[in-house]
Please model this.
Amino acid sequence: MLSENEVNHAITDIAEMGRNALIDALRDYDAQFPVDFSDEFLQTVEEDRLRHIFVALVLHCQRLPERCAA
Model:
């Protein structure tokens, strides 16, 4: 389980990511289940929604991505 500190750190890091970094993070994240978004979806969805999706993925999996490791 992620600590409150780890969650806050991850959310801050994710909030600072641009579209390309978010897309890379979503593609590279090693979830316990398949995460498969089409290129069209990733390029057209609003950047804030990509952030929301990535935060939800991290919270659901309870594992920090490498780029957000404290």
Remarks:
- Helices lie at 4-15, 19-28, 39-44, 47-61.
- The mean pLDDT is 93.
